[in-house]
Amino acid sequence: MTYIGIDVSKDTFVVAYSPEKNSKTRTFKNTTRGIHEFIRTISKDEHHCVMEATGNYSALLVYLLSEAGITTSLENPLKVKNFARAMLSTVKTDEIDARLIALYGEKMNPALYRLRSDAILTLKQKRTVIRQLKKQLIATRNLKGSMEVLPFFDAKCKKSIEKTIAFLEKQVKDLEEDLSSLARSEYKKQMDLLTSVKGIGVTLAAALIMATGGFTYFDNAKQLTRHLGLSPTYQQSGTSVNFKGHINRNGDSSLRSQLYVAACSSLRCNTECRACYDRLRSNGKPGKVAIIAVANKLIRQAFAVVTQEKLYVDGYVSSKK
Q: Which CATH superfamily is domain 2-108 in?
């Protein structure tokens, strides 16, 4: 299998057909036509394409490669960056980056990318738009508040701001209802199981389904916790370095925030989460550290109910020794 490195940008992508220093590279337009032109230059039996996850810029390329049956890997840019450091790379151009990615594929043998379903892609789009609209809504409300303290608030400006706020509120409400409806129609069983966990509501349940592809991307809860950036870090070396750091924070910061809020709410209604929190606090752990531990417990509970296909029973104690 020959690894092909692809460096993706908004308008174009550079392809390195070999990691060798003087190997040829080609540049294609990042459009449907350009991608099909690139696909005609490779074979699904001989080539393995590797690229960094660059958000929406790489989405069409990954989608069309997967549809064409081309083996594809989509890697965390941090992994490639650290690999470049290990290789003592000092020059950065699109061509060099593409060759470096090809070398990364050859040396690291990255995992295959599993194409997201249309439902997951649609849910993610709605979630992204909702998040951006909420930011605009907060900014507009803050603008209104800052104008109201002035000696004189122009009536026309006030009316314009209030209309914008009302419009944004309606758009957010409609999209949230649409997202909830789509999640329940496409993943009804999983939504019912997840929302049975005390502390997990419809919004968080839908976000977990999006992050896990319907709980198909991960084999266990520990992998999911690491992916979401909630795993504690630890450093030990010799006698001088030995300390526990913060959580790894590698995943979706918005979903982490949702889990943190859900963990706080679960203390009022989830027996196991409350017991976990009280135990850690009694052992002298700071409040935020205990809340993060509760968020991890929520993830384990969510993973358990979905994989075992059983509704959550608050306070249930397993009979297994």
A: ATPase, nucleotide binding domain (3.30.420.40)
- Dihedral angle of Cα 104, 107, 108, 110, to the nearest 10 degrees: 70
Indicate the helix (H) or strand (E) that contains 209: helix 202-212
| Pairwise CA distance, residues 215 & 211, whole Å | 8
CA distance 180 to 183: 5
Q: Is pTM, for the whole model, over 0.85?
A: no
CA pair distance 101, 21, nearest whole angstrom: 12
Angle in degrees, 0-180, between the axes of helices 202-212 and 188-195, rounded to the nearest 10: 120
How many other CB atoms are found less than 10 A from the CB of residue 212?
Answer: 20
What residue spans define the domains of the chain? Answer: 2-108, 118-186, 205-308
Q: Return d(Cα 100, Cα 117) in angstroms, integer.
A: 30
Residues with Cβ within 8 Å of residue 257, at least 6 apart in sequence = none
Supply 36's token pair: 């099909």
Q: Which residues of the chain have pLDDT under 70?
A: 235, 239, 241-245, 316-321
Listed residue (105, 91, 112) closest to 3, CA to CA: 105
Summarize pLDDT for 173-226 with one digit per residue, the tens: 999 999 999 999 999 999 999 999 999 999 999 999 999 989 988 999 999 998
The DSSP symbol for 68 reads T
